[in-house]
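Private note to self, pasted from the team thread so I don't lose it. Backbone tokens:
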């Protein structure tokens, strides 16, 4: 029996299979994205931690209290289900999983920072992987009362993206289509980072939007396929509880692909007509107690001055250790428009986010000390926290540090000159292109009056360049 097991379990990927399809799929996905998108990899590792805690509790017939993974780990340790080394490893891996940050306006921090950040987070993802392997081995022992054979780390090649897109194209797997969506979205984010100027060309903008639309198509396919799979598992039909088709799908589908689709829609990348649909879908997920949706929807409500409703969703997300919710709650309790102004409670939420390892919360704490918000102003502490947030990949920390601690008037002037030069080159290039197209159109006698004008306008030749000359 031991020989069969040793033959079956050779790598960490083989070991993850012993904990069911969900853990295996998340672990395999984490390995595939370790280099190219370590944020996503770390998020998947964190989800594995949550799943393993539930599996341990189920095996010992223990009911976990609350929704926080941190609370679950403490409860398992307190009830002597897990030992101290396993408890420490679970906490460490959980904190690694909070490295994900928000990426808006990434061009402001510079391509070099993005490259360094990705490399740094990739190293953290590999460190988290080694922790997860130890956790899997210890969990295996708890569940089966024997240790698995020692495993080697499975190799991850350089062609993961191509393999993922190929698998998504030839299978009906909702999981494969979800990963394909993440790939397209990752490429789109890389595109914005590599743009040399805030004024990107029309071609680049079209390419960016097309990538996000491709991502949305994959996410939509993923959540709709998952709904049907989940219905079959529960022996239900599409007309369960007299709900219409879309209501059934959003009720029973996997949360992650629906959330990713909804965010792209809400941000306007599918067209303005889809923005309200995105908000509606995010609200549906928030009511399904999906913490990422609760935090996002709460932040949306806060931004639109719906403060009371916002706090409801933010509190529910914060109970699940969502660091975005904790950071927005900090702003909520410092908002002068609200009667609940409470700096102590604001800082309590922010410090909790810092304890969870959130880089953006660490950056915000640096801002707090720099401005003296509820604390004595301390630029030394401010710089310390900002640098720590930057080391952990916070765009917010990088931008704030650049502007308030590193940028001199001379540097601001230099950056302004660079922007003007870049804009001038872009305008000249587009002007020269238009001029060349018009010259070609006016000098070509073979073009029919009703043919499409070669200048690129999309109009018929007789309505465009037929009677025009360029001076």
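Design output:
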């Amino acid at each position: 029996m031991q020989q069969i097991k040793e033959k079956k379990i050779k790598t960490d990927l083989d070991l993850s299979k012993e904990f069911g399809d969900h853990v295996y799929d998340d672990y395999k996905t984490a390995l595939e994205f370790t280099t190219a998108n370590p944020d996503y990899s770390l998020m998947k590792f964190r989800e594995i931690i949550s799943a393993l805690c539930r599996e341990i509790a189920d095996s010992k017939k223990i009911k976990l209290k609350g929704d926080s993974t941190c609370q679950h780990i403490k409860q398992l340790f307190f009830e002597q289900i897990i030992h101290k080394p396993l408890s420490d490893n679970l906490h460490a891996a959980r904190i690694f999983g909070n490295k994900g940050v928000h990426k808006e306006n990434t061009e402001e921090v510079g391509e070099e920072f993005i490259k360094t950040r990705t490399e740094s987070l990739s190293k953290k993802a590999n460190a988290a992987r080694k922790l997860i392997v130890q956790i899997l081995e210890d969990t295996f022992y708890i569940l089966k009362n024997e240790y698995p054979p020692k495993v080697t780390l499975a190799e991850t090649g350089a062609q993961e993206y191509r393999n993922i897109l190929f698998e998504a194209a030839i299978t009906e797997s909702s999981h494969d289509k979800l990963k394909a969506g993440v790939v397209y979205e990752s490429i789109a984010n890389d595109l914005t980072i590599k743009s040399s100027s805030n004024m990107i060309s029309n071609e680049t903008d079209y390419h960016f939007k097309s990538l996000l639309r491709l991502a949305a198509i994959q996410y939509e396919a993923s959540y709709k396929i998952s709904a049907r799979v989940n219905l079959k598992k529960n022996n239900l039909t599409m007309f369960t509880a007299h709900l219409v088709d879309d209501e059934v799908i959003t009720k029973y589908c996997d949360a992650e692909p629906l959330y990713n689709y909804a965010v792209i829609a809400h941000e306007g990348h599918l067209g303005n007509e889809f923005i309200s649909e995105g908000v509606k879908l995010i609200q549906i997920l928030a009511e399904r107690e999906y913490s990422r949706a609760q935090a996002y929807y709460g932040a949306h409500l806060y931004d639109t001055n719906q403060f009371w409703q916002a706090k409801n969703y933010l509190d529910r997300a914060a109970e699940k250790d969502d660091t975005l919710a904790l950071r927005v709650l900090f702003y909520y309790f410092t908002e002068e428009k609200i009667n609940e102004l409470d700096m102590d409670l604001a800082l309590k939420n922010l410090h909790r986010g810092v304890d969870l390892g959130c880089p953006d919360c660490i950056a915000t704490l640096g801002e707090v000390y720099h401005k003296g918000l509820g604390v004595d102003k301390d630029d030394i502490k401010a710089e310390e926290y900002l640098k720590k947030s930057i080391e952990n990949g916070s765009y917010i920390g990088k931008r704030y540090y650049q502007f308030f601690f590193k940028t001199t008037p001379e540097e601001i002037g230099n950056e302004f000159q660079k922007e003007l030069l870049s804009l001038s080159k872009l305008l000249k290039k587009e002007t020269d292109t238009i001029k060349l197209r018009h010259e070609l159109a006016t000098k070509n006698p073979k073009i029919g009056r009703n043919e499409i004008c070669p200048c690129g306008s999309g109009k018929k030749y007789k309505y465009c360049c037929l009677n025009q000359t360029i001076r």
